[in-house]
Amino acid sequence: MAGVLRAERVWVETFTGLRVDQFGRLLKAVRERGGEGCGWGRPWRLPLAERVLLVAVYYRTNLTMRQLGPLLAIEPARASQDAVERLWIVDGTLVPVRDRKVGASSRNYRFSANVQVIVDAETRLVVATARPVPGNTADAKAWRDSGLAAHCEGVTVLGDGAYINTGLIVPHRKRPGRPLLKAEEEDNAQHRRVRARVEHTFSRMKNYKILRDCRQRGNGLHHAVQAVARMHNLALAA
């Protein structure tokens, strides 16, 4: 049996209802039936013993995403004493969903939900996430309705051009008959460079397949986003 399970035998006995030697026999049976191979697709990331333990825990406890998700949720950060020196970025990302009460047909030509996310520009850690709204909701409205502004008091927050008139720092806009000044173009270029960090964060978060096609209903997507945000932060802080 894997060393991690020998070291944490209490986990096996508590969560599966099997003694370690009994779990070892179960693991042996799975291995003899070809459990080491994944058959098709990407290779398994977890060792066989941990995969069997995971399934056994699921069957014994019947804990579902709906029950575990809220326990993994990230806790929204609030501005600290050095808030003046902090720089946060906000943006919305579209998550394809199946629940017709959560999503709407949106600009990515799929039935999606709009999730507003705040990211720390320096650390790339997720600061807070909002409840999803239908994917055809404008980012400015989604931001105003999200309540996330309460977490940003005293912090400089960047947004793209969709967040005009929201109090966020947005790029300079071209106006009819008035081209941008050189200094304004330089400001916009710097703005784009910094704001790209939130897109990088979205890319990393969407390594979790649930954010590429969420089949959860009700609060399932909200809990999934919060849980993925916490795991993303833990991975960066390691």
Count of discrete domains = 2
Taken in chain order, the helices and strands follow as HHHHHEEEEEHEHH
Count up the helices. Answer: 8
Which topology of the largest domain does CATH recognise? Nucleotidyltransferase, domain 5
Which sheet architecture does the biggest sheet show? Answer: 6 strands, mixed
**What is the β-strand count?**
6
| Structural class determined from secondary elements | alpha+beta
Gross geometry: elongated
CATH architecture of the largest domain: 2-Layer Sandwich
Helix content: 40-55%
* Share of residues in strands: 5-15%
Please state the oligomeric state of the protein chains shown: single chain
Query: What is the straight-line distance between the termini?
Result: 27 Å
